[in-house]
């Protein structure tokens, strides 16, 4: 084949994203088998320094992974956490006292200038700094005191998929290491992820249902809320459908008024306390005649307009987000293709976004 002749294998829309989604079980195994000992050592070192609270720094998909870490740290360790606003440092020059504060910066590439600058400033202000990236040689890793490699391998599709689930897995193991746990509840994830990926035809059928949606609302509570935010981001950046994500509690405080029987509502129902807290929201949505699509336990899916049953029986609530996002990645991929677009190359996006 000459250099001027296109390779037909590269002309299939979404081929790269599909390939990287399919890698997720192997990536999850790699972190457990190869990365866990190093993550545990980092966690033990940091735990010995007794940080007084945690600040989490990230953008985009990594911001949703950081939000997941916030739930873990506050629920599992009782450690107060906050999500930082980098502009306070990079644009306004604020220099708060961060002595004995753990600053965790999550970034797939580790290359965004504002992440690097804010982490450097945090370290200069006395913080314990940890970078969680897919690139150990990145500028962010270089300015941080500690580094955790999510070991996802190169990611070429613009929508992040395997780096998101790898970040969740690595952050879970890190938090477990801080509390002296062994991370055993996460061992089931690779096999269950394989089962979910094998059900792509189910998502393709659901994508046909939502192909012409003009907007979507995605909601959850507890550990599922970061999943809702990440799903909305995936839908917007691939299919260009305006997708609004809300905590179920926030949805009841006003945005519920925009829900009708036309615009689909996707509810991520975690099997556990988060799902229980979401129940009143689901009842209100059904009462309004919403087109309700549930990702969650069979008992919840059977009460919805449509849904996808997750294999969460016996799976710890805190690791379910790794499973919840996979069918939503597949759904975004299939909706985008059904709309005649290429999820590998969303318009106006770059793989490394250099914000300042």
Automatic annotation (TrEMBL):
Q: Which residues cross the membrane?
A: none
The keyword Repeat appears for this protein: yes
Q: Which UniProt keywords apply?
A: Repeat
Q: Where is the SIS domain?
A: 42-184, 206-346
Q: Which GO terms describe its molecular function?
A: carbohydrate derivative binding
Q: Does the keyword Repeat apply?
A: yes
Checking Pfam families in the record gives:
SIS (PF01380)
Give a GO biological-process term: carbohydrate derivative metabolic process
Q: Which Gene3D superfamilies match?
A: Glucose-6-phosphate isomerase like protein, domain 1 (3.40.50.10490)
Q: Which domain of life is it from?
A: Bacteria
Name of this chain's protein: SIS domain-containing protein
Organism, by scientific name, is Streptomyces guryensis
List the taxonomic lineage.
Bacteria, Bacillati, Actinomycetota, Actinomycetes, Kitasatosporales
């Amino acid at each position: 084949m000459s250099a001027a002749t296109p390779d037909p294998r590269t002309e299939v829309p979404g081929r790269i994203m599909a390939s990287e989604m399919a890698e997720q079980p192997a990536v999850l195994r790699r972190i457990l088998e190869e990365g866990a000992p190093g993550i545990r050592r980092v966690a033990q070192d940091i735990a010995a320094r007794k940080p007084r609270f945690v600040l989490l720094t990230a953008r985009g998909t990594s911001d949703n992974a950081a939000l997941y870490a916030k739930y873990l740290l506050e629920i599992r360790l009782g450690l107060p956490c906050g999500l930082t606003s980098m502009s306070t440092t990079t644009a306004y020059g604020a220099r708060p006292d961060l002595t004995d504060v753990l600053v965790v910066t999550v970034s797939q590439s580790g290359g965004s200038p504002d992440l690097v600058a804010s982490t450097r400033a945090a370290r200069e202000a006395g913080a314990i700094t940890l970078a969680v990236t897919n690139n150990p040689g990145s500028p962010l890793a270089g300015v941080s005191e500690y580094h955790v490699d999510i070991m996802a391998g190169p990611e070429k599709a613009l929508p992040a998929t395997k780096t998101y689930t790898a970040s969740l897995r690595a952050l879970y193991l890190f938090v477990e290491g801080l509390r002296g746990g062994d991370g055993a509840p996460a061992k089931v994830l690779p096999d269950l992820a394989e089962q979910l990926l094998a059900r792509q035809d189910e998502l393709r059928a659901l994508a046909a249902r939502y192909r012409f949606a003009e907007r979507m609302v995605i909601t959850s509570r507890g550990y599922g809320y970061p999943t809702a935010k990440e799903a909305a981001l995936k839908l917007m950046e691939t299919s260009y459908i305006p997708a609004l994500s809300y905590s179920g509690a926030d949805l009841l405080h006003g945005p519920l008024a925009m829900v009708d029987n036309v615009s689909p509502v996707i509810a991520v129902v975690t099997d556990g306390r988060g799902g229980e807290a979401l129940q009143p929201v689901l009842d209100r949505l059904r009462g309004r005649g919403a087109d309700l699509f549930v990702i969650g336990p069979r008992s919840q899916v059977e009460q919805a307009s449509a849904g996808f049953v997750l294999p969460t029986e016996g799976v710890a609530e805190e690791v379910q987000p790794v499973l919840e996002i996979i069918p939503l990645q597949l759904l975004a991929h299939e909706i985008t293709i059904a709309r005649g677009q290429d999820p590998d190359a969303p318009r106006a996006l770059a793989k490394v976004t250099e914000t300042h």
